[in-house]
Amino acid sequence: MRVTKSRTRPFSVTPQLEPGAPSDLELMKAIQAEDPDALSQLYDRYNGILKALILRVIHNEAEADDLLQEIFMEIWNQAKNFSSQKGKPLGWMVTLARRRAIDGLRKKQAYARAEERLQNETEQQPDAWVHNSTEEEIVLSDTRSLIRQVISGLPPAQQEAIDLAFFRGMSQREIAAKTNTPLGTVKTRLELGLKKIYDGLKELKGEL
Amino acid sequence: MNFKEFQNQSRLYVIGALETEELEEFEKARKKFGKKAEDYIGECYGLHEAFALSLRPAKSSDGIKDRLMAMVRARKEV
User: What is the CA radius of gyration of chain A?
Assistant: First the structure.
């Protein structure tokens, strides 16, 4: 693996685009100017990633589809609040989608149902972070494959803590209760795991 | 809190994993470090992008895009 050190620049892991395709930023600017075709292109580019993220939170196909539609509508309505100074369009969309998905999960008080589904799906789902050892069997894009290399390099307990915090919106105390682990240990797992991922992504930047 | 500790906390902050009592300390440090702090937090949001890209894209229902674009065009005409 080629490793480049770039400590001062913000990292981005946005996938490469076809030559001549408008950048995400160009599409966001067009959406800010109320161009529906730009939203259509952004949808084609990222609906799969956002749907996967939502599905990972709420574990229900139909609800995930509904939420996906609402999120793209919100992207259209809130585009004026996007500022390239604060980050990349994909990061902004993911943050928005994650917040909506976690809110949706809480509002519907679906924790119990989701928990049951999560347990079932963790056994079946090839995409789960924890205990995933079948990566070679799955055709992954270069970007995804590289990111997953970083994540799968973490000890399972760290992966689990980050997974519960990021995809389930759990606090440290909730994670401690769910995993029957001391609060201090949860904090350490999160800190170490996130630092390793952050540093790993910085190093991967040169490859993406 | 020194800047290294602030960096640690920032990574927890962006994924919403800081507890209430930690958030107060974090916000104080955020003010103290100013632009350097904001730049670092902005950088940490790259983690969101990475976590999403680590997932295999899921297929959406066929009708969603049509409904979405119809809603957008209707809203634009109003």
Answer: 18
Mean pLDDT of chain B: 91
A133 and A192 in a single domain? The answer is yes
Query: Among A13, A191, A197, whose Cβ lies nearest the Cβ of B53?
Result: A13
Backbone torsion region of residue A12, taken as left when φ is above 0, otherwise alpha when ψ lies between -120 and 50, otherwise beta: beta
pLDDT tens-digit series, residues A45-72 = 999 999 999 999 998 999 999 999 999 9
Cβ-proximal residues to A17 (8 Å cutoff; 6+ apart), any chain: A23
Which domain covers residue A105, as residue numbers? Answer: 20-125
CATH number of the domain where residue A30 is located: 1.10.1740.10
Rounded to the nearest angstrom, the minimum Cα separation between A76 and chain B is: 8
Percent of chain A with pLDDT over 90: 55
pLDDT at A148 (0 to 100): 84
Note whether residue A107 is domain-resident: yes
- The answer, for B66 touching chain A at a CB cutoff of 8 Å, is no
Query: Could you tell me how many CB contacts below 8 A there are between chain A and chain B?
Result: 145
Model's pTM, two decimal places?
0.80
> What are the phi and psi torsion angles at A64 (to 5°)?
-65, -40
pLDDT at A134: 42
Residue B49 CB contacts under 8 Å (≥ 6 apart), including other chains: A12, A13, A14, A88, A90, A91, A94
With vertex at residue A71, the alpha carbon angle to CA A82 and CA A55, rounded to the nearest 5 degrees, is 125
Is some CB atom of chain A closer than 8 A to the CB atom of B69? yes
- pLDDT of B67 > 70? The answer is yes
